[in-house]
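Sequence only, no structure available. Ideas?
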Amino acid sequence: MKKVKWGILGTASIAVRKVIPGMQKGAYSEITAIASRDKKKAEEAARKLGIPKAYGSYEELLRDREVEAIYNPLPNHLHVPWSIKAAEAGKHVLCEKPISLTVAEAKTLAAARDRAGVKIGEAFMVKTHPQWLRTQEIIRSGGIGKLRTAMCVFSYFNRDPANVRHKVEWGGGGLMDIGCYPITMSRFIFAEEPIRVAGMLERDPDFRTDRLASAILEFPSGQSIFSCSTQTAYFQRMHFLGTSGRVEVEIPLERAE
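Reply:
I predicted one. Tokens follow.
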């Protein structure tokens, strides 16, 4: 099987520190180009990571016929617009989470995917991580009896006003940044969709983004409860309790700062 040739939109920290080096170790992936609105940043990243081509705009990269697929690690509000542009250019897309800010946006992206006949995926690495596949296996095999509840806490402290996570107009806030993990993994492990949700938010008085969010998700067979925060001590745990046992994932949702 030949390697898929990838282009990277932007020089986000998670891309240059984690995702690109990981993809370069893959048997079926090749990073062939990277783009930034600041060409010097693209050239610096390309030089450091051994990427053959650097572009000074995202549009230039999308015009590159050699590029077959795009990784989109741009700020949240740019996920759908640039993923659509990539699809319209005939590129497959791996987009960072959250793939969209609203249901309406997600539907627009899905329609663009279908029109273009490409594949678009959301980059939740947890769905393919060995510890999560093992957790899923234990629970689905009845290892803890019938699953009844999931509980998660995920938090870190960051009040840097320049950080994109604190820009409300860019889709910032803890719920979009880290709350999406317990929501996604609760759906993944229960293998159901919630039928009712209740939640509370506390907003930062300066940034207006949510700095503390808690929710209860009611599933047909149980409940999931989580709290996430961008302004408390760093911590993460996820527990699953069944009728005869439990599973605790100690580092369930490790992320790159």
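The first strand starts at residue 4 and ends at 9.
Hope that gets you unstuck.
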